[in-house]
Amino acid sequence: MTPRFAPASDDALPIWPLWKGDALPKEIGNPAWPEACGFRGDAGQICLLPDGSGAIVGALFGLGDPELAERERFAFARARKLPAGTWRIAAMPDGLNPEEAALAWLLGQYRFTRYKGQPADGPELVAPDGVDAARIESFAAAEFLIRDLINTPANDMDPSQLEAAATDLANSLGASITVTRGDDLLHENLPLIHAVGRAAQDAPRLIDIRLGDSGPMLTIVGKGVCFDTGGLDIKPPSSMGLMKKDMGGAANALGLLKMLAETGAAKGKRVRVLIPAVENSIAGNAFRPGDVLTSRLGLTVEVNNTDAEGRLVLADAMALACEESPDLMISLATLTGAARVALGPDIPPFYCDDDATALALAKAAKTARDPLWRMPFWPAYEGRIEPQIADLDNAPAGGMAGSITAALFLRRFAGKAQRYIHLDIYGWQPAAAPARPKGGIGQGPRAILTALPDMLP
């Protein structure tokens, strides 16, 4: 599915988005019909406007209360059964950002159709005046890629198939890609990736994509655990049901790469994407609780829970990335349940030691309506990730500050990056919302792209 705006047309029907309580537009003439229909501008309310013969000549669409922080509410105009055909926004009300409205419409087109066939044709929108249609279409296409990758079940999205998707994307963007698989991970000194993925039938691997050959370097590391049983510390069924989404960090990394390349934001920069792609499976050769593993960096890690595997595979990939001292390194990972307890599914926490970089990302998250919330690398908790018999503990006891201790663990492998940002994303929409159907979701890429000129000039 490719999100697209409709070509401009004189036959496009007008739609007037209105906040609750706004006066009806003068263009509709007699207000008796909307009033008789009970139109008040409530969120998602649609009033179709007929002419004297009953033909539809326009529509009113309710945006609801402007004080509410609900995102992408204009997507309701499509979702609430606006008739098929071509539409145009007749007038943009104060407080509704044209780019947000345009993106919301395109995101509202998304359907995961791999197993159920194509949806019926719906209404189309002409891009609002002043909007960079190609840029917004690129944002939506990247989001569709993220959603498709996460929504695909693990039997059709194992490490090999994630590699194939990454290869297709790299080829389409003119980027280079190399992949290290199986026992070659040991030969290339990537032992943690190998340890986590070695019990699976599909070999673990590290996917390495490069775009651009000059300028400051941005490295993106995405967690690619294609399915997580929890390993020998096996998850209960209630916790394992969504584990096809545990490669959501990798999906978001690939979506961000697509966005960077297609919008031109990668121009004049070197972009590298590293994805450790594994399944955390159970077999006789699975890594065990109590094992002590040696990382690429040389730090030893005591495995106190095999279900805390994401930080292990990220650690080796980040250590490799830091050997080039990137100007900015970003990790994207569906890493901890603690982040969801703290902030819920909609707001991923991010961690960054550099105040200027963190401020740029926080501002961009608000501008792009791609919410993020800064949390601290709290130094007083460093001792919690240091067990007695190894340098690091992958799963500190006690359960408190789990997202922070995971971030502190990762920071130990980011030392040679000039600046480092970690996003602990959820990657899943648990209930349908405007432009966000239940299922896989992008979290962070639009905010990162929007902040990039300030973070990496």
UniProtKB/TrEMBL annotation:
InterPro entries: Leucine_aapep/pepB, Macro_dom-like, Peptidase_M17_C, Peptidase_M17_N_1. Residues 305-312 form the Cytosol aminopeptidase domain. It comes from Paracoccus onchidii. Belongs to the peptidase M17 family. Pfam families: Peptidase_M17, Peptidase_M17_N_1. The keyword Protease applies. CDD domains: Peptidase_M17. The keyword Lyase does not apply. GO terms for molecular function: aminopeptidase activity. Keywords: Aminopeptidase, Hydrolase, Manganese, Protease. PANTHER family: LEUCINE AMINOPEPTIDASE-RELATED, PEPTIDASE B. This is Leucyl aminopeptidase family protein.
